[in-house]
Amino acid sequence: MYVSSEHRRHVALRRMVLATSLLAALPLASARAQQTAASSAETLAPVNVTITGSRIRGTDVETAQPVFTMDRQAIRATGLTSLGDIVARMPSASMPELTPQDTLSSNNDAGGRYANLRNLGAVRTLVLVNGRRWTASLGGLTDLSTIPVSIVERIEVLKDGASSIYGSDAIGGVVNIITTDRFEGASADLFYGVNGRGDGAQKNGTFTWGRSNERASIILGASYEDGDALRDGERSTTRSAYGPRHADDGFGMGPYGGVVDPRAPADRYVIDHAGGVVGDTANFANYHPYDVASNVDKYSTAQDMTFRAGSKLRNLFGTGRYNLTDDIVLRGMTSYGVRDTRSQAAGYPLESGAGRQQGLFIDPANAYNPFPGYATSFFRRTTELPRMIWAKSKTLHADAGAEGTFQWIAHTWNWDVTYAYSETRASRTTSGNIDLVNARKALGPTATIDGQTVCADAADRAAGCVPWNILAGPGGTPDAVWNYVASTTTARQVTRTNDLVANLTGGLFDLPAGTLRAAGGVEHRRENGRYTPDPADSAGLTTQLASDPTDGGYIVNEAYLEFDVPLLTDLPLARELAVNASTRYSHYSAFGGRTNNKYSFRWKPFDDLLLRGTYAQGFRAPTVADLYAGSSESFESFLDPCDSAYGASATDAAVRARCGAAGVPGNYRQIDQSGAQIGSATGGQSPTAFRTGANPALKPESSITRTAGLVYSPGYLDGLDITLDYYKIDISDVITPILAGDILDFCYVRNDPTWCGRFARAADGHIATLDESLANLGTLRTEGYDLGLHYRFPETRYGEFTLLSDSTYLKDYTQVSSPGAAPRHLAGYMSGAQGLYRVRSNLSLDWSWRRFGATWTTRYFSGLKDSCWSADVECNRPGELNALTGVTGVSRKGGVAFHDLQLRWQAPWNGNVRLGVNNVFGRKGPFYYNVSSAGGGSPPYNPAFDIDRYFYLGYQQKF
Q1: 597-615, pLDDT tens digit by residue?
Q2: Where do the segments described as Disordered lie (predicted)?
Q3: Which residues of 909-945 are buried (b: 16+ CB within 10 A; e: fewer)?
Q4: Whole-prediction pTM value?
Q5: Which of 123, 419, 660, 737 is the least crowded, having the fewest Cβ atoms under 10 Å away?
């Protein structure tokens, strides 16, 4: 059997990393007899303290930047088992582009957990593990579910730009996962949680074992997580497309056969189905006119949808350290995880237009055709065949390196060299679509043989063709037909990162105020990947969204320098004054080089007060998918500005004139997938697939980050810490897909004719084709404040109390979609998957006494502006212009607070019990109609909100 050289390299790499871990274990075996056995498992402090935001060790330079830290106890207090969910709870974080509730998207990243800082998107948040990049997908997303919570010592979140230190992507901030690297003994941790309705159970088990001595340490562990699915149909909040207040709206194509009269194409009919019984579909007398304004012949697809996908995650991990000499340490880390997710979407809305360019018709000679002699168009949802999606992701990360110290020019210097390899292999298998080739044959001409209706073509019969009475509705299609026309296809994706990093830091010389310290380093990184759609899907031979293959990559060479300069110390109004400067040059084979600089200061006028500030340049390089992805199809929801009832043309004469000049009828109404006219300013989903794709000419996004803040720890009140930080981030050359609604707005509302060539309309006015390919377009600005109040009360006879409060205020969030376009001020709006809350705040009170403890946490979300349902329904500000949609009318909805409680007990046998309830009072929160179904999940549910009460029980046993 032939084995490629690439495969041999991957196998060799895995063996190398395993060998590194085993080598670290050998000294333990030889020294174990000299050690005193530990009476219990004990987690030790990490050997290397990571300073997020700086490469300089041994200084307080990190205090010049706003860093939020969550330790192991705080992580466990959340009652959550995914790092992505834990990070999303932080006030400075928001929901990512793909939420856990997104089961409709065909994106290969769906099902993962991602971090999104400052509402700038997961692609602009850099994720590190121990200061090193973790694996990312073709689209630039880092799945935090691949990192087991059990090995996490703490999470450090740098709420600042850091491209001069870490390179691309660190615009919104940096999430640095610090793992435990010393562990003595063994520990087993079991967790079970369930929603108040008894579904969505979460089961988690972790086992960790470690040994260490003066020269070496090793940790090995395994974790398993199993999360049951939640279904939309189980809750009134998500049972219908627009929630319980509009339960009869948003119905889609129905399951009973409908036809278009070939003699009068404007007339459509549906087979009679009283009591679910269908008569002879070939007899036109058994049909009635299709009324698009009635739900009688329609279907609520939400009842068949998964609200949250079921998932299973298995992970093996190991770390090892060995002190080769007193000054040199060898280290290695390996993590291998497998994630399986399973979700369900409603059966496919099959119609003649789904047959691509050739169309899909009931043949004139088909026995079930109610219009014999005519090629008959039809429409019908295949509810008996729901679309099932099985996604599997296998992630390998391995790194090996060395670090050490030496003396030079009378100062201590630290160095480290690391090689890291990351690989993700993902597959996505989808069933429930229709094989168009076989469907055409099954709907083709029929014959009668031995009294049976069969496919007329003998060759087709020999190949398994069975006639399909597509109009018969649920129960009218035999299994033999489904087996013939159903399609199950698989798409695969592989991404690889090879990263070699070397760093050096130490003191250069002494100044009157202290030592001038420096850091420098180089990095060589190779990113590449490919996406291989199923050949049948890619060729348009199935109803699955078609996409073209992706194959590409780039090489990055980088170098950086950082200096920390103490200016004053121990003087009046200058207990400390220092500045930090860093610069990084990055050269990408895809687009060339760029330099990013960062400057910061810290000033202590007196011991209790620290003032700090930064100015940082940043960038985000286009991802492999941005540059090289093949084009793909999507069915998008949008509002057509030319719609005469709800579009901008309804109230703006200039827009109405431009629509008319483009040939759009004056009474044009946008239709959704069911063929019905849209019923609100929320628009509707296109019945026609649009195309989106990459752009190899993209250039990087650029950013400027400014922060200023203070840290106040008054000596007269021990235990109190107050932090206040201001931030402002400006991004230009934003890489974005130009969504359908924006393209149409650019053309008609903003009167920019350069966008009008991206789409074409049919004679009746509806959008027939549209191109959403990526572009560097527009700008984005966000501005606000972070406030932290932390107070540890004096110890009392009733125990120790700690009050923690962290809040974020969003002052501004402004998008400019294209040069010359009017800015959209979106702070305080519900926008797609994320709410741009003016205020987010977490307040917790922790109590501990002897072996007992409890934590009460309140999570507050301020109110948001949403689109009105209509001018006189759910529209409390009808005269206010909606900055998100450009349509008059805003619905302002109030804030909500969720409360969590956890009780814990430290057992005398080295066990730990934690019992908790998240969302104690069962709050639901307002409904938002601007939540997107692709990315967000299940409108009108806000994906950032709790869906139910959630009960959990955890037990940890140390050995």
Answers
A1: 999 999 999 999 999 999 9
A2: 677-696
A3: ebebebbbbbbbeeebbbbbbbbbbbbbbbbbbbbbb
A4: 0.86
A5: 660
